Automatic annotation (TrEMBL):
Protein name: ornithine decarboxylase
Chain positions found as N6-(pyridoxal phosphate)lysine: K65
Keyword Transmembrane carried by entry: no
Subunit record text: Homodimer. Only the dimer is catalytically active, as the active sites are constructed of residues from both monomers.
Organism the protein comes from: Ooceraea biroi (Clonal raider ant)
InterPro entries, per the entry: Ala_racemase/Decarboxylase_C, De-COase2_C, De-COase2_N, De-COase2_pyr-phos_BS, Orn/DAP/Arg_de-COase, Orn_de-COase, PLP-binding_barrel
Lineage: Eukaryota, Metazoa, Ecdysozoa, Arthropoda, Hexapoda
Family: Belongs to the Orn/Lys/Arg decarboxylase class-II family.
Reaction(s) catalysed by this chain's protein: L-ornithine + H(+) = putrescine + CO2
Cofactor section: pyridoxal 5'-phosphate
Amino acid sequence: MKVTDHDERIHVLDNKSNVMTVIKDIAMSGLQEEAFYVLDIGDIVRKHQIWKEKLPRVEPYYAVKCNDNLLVIEVLAALGTGFDCASKNEINKVLSVGVDPSRIIFANPAKPASHIRHAAAMRVDTMTVDNESELHKIKKLFPMAKIVLRIRCDAEVALCPLGMKFGCDPIHEAPGLLRLAHTLGLNVVGISFHVGSGCQDPPVYHRAIYHCKILFDMAENLGFKPYLLDLGGGYPGNKGTSIDKMAEIINKALDEYFNTDAVHVIAEPGRFYVASAFTLATSIHSKRSVRGDENSSMAVTHNMYYINDGVYGSFNCLLYDHQHVIPIPLKNGCGKMIPSSIWGPTCDGLDKVVENVMLHDMELGDWIIFENMGAYTLPVASPFNGFPIPKVHIVAEEDIWLLLKDALPLTEHHFVIGNTPANLRLGLDIAGNNIDPWGVTDSTIDLASPEIMADSPDTPPFMYDFVEAPLN
């Protein structure tokens, strides 16, 4: 893939720089007002190393829906992962970087007809099914497809349960679907399941793999030759989380039920790879102090901070992915902690990022950082109310550059050598053009400066009155 001047490339950092120093460089430049991300490619590489170490038999097929950033896809393709796609557009995006169709599973059990026809045209022939009508549809549109039967085996605790929408009952429905597929002359090549996104019930994997073994045997008795076991997703990816317990249970179950090289085992990790790789920086553009209590009508009882990203943007994960975000002020505060809330920029009252948190007093222009923002954020973000989706700056340490610079589809053209170039610090694109129409290039603006709120000499003085505003 040719990288144009206007595409963001990977900035290679020296040994004195890291994600937080880059964030500080951009935020403190005085020229950056919009929210932005910093993506650490090295974090993805390290996650891949952990996966290969903990689950050596399980080949990862990255769930594109989790974060479809093109550089993420290119890095994972360079590392040799497969891809789990849910639509023809996701298929096209993965194919565009040179991934072979055989390394894609069309893992949406309910596919529009046009998407099945497109998969056939693109030679993406492995796809999941969990109902009778889908089998009939595939028989008509793509009879040579390789069918993976998806069963339901729900985790007791998960961020996003999926069994309510997808997966057939492994005991009562799956045998009938196997018989129907045999009658239709379709080729069932394997069994899959998905315990739920963000699984917090590791033993569920043992139960699911046990059900798959029973269905493998049943499929073989019908004359099929199944060889693919798909363990789905559910693997955590935030900082401080681990897949060790899941890996222990999965490896034990594979040894117990599928102790053979004849079965190819894959999984569909999404948030595991990208959640901790993305850090979001937001700035405070407005502030409202709620005053008055039983002791003093002038005391601040609650601060409401309005930042330049919200639930219609990156923080849609609060609504759709049930995430819990933790605000981290970029500058160290002092004094007493004040009850606070954080709000997005839109005119919708629903746009609340953090409901109640204790923070030091902050001012306009101060920055708040949110870690673990790589999963189910950007793909769902919208420019509602005219507020832009944050730009992503991409960085890597030198050892990561040396590892990836010749690993196709990545080339040296994807990298910018040198420590955090000035155009990155100033929020500019790779060609050095100002991408912020509100930016100022000949001076800096201190958004926290008292002069911003000061009256001009010709402005008559205002009388201010503090009004107690109830918090919902």
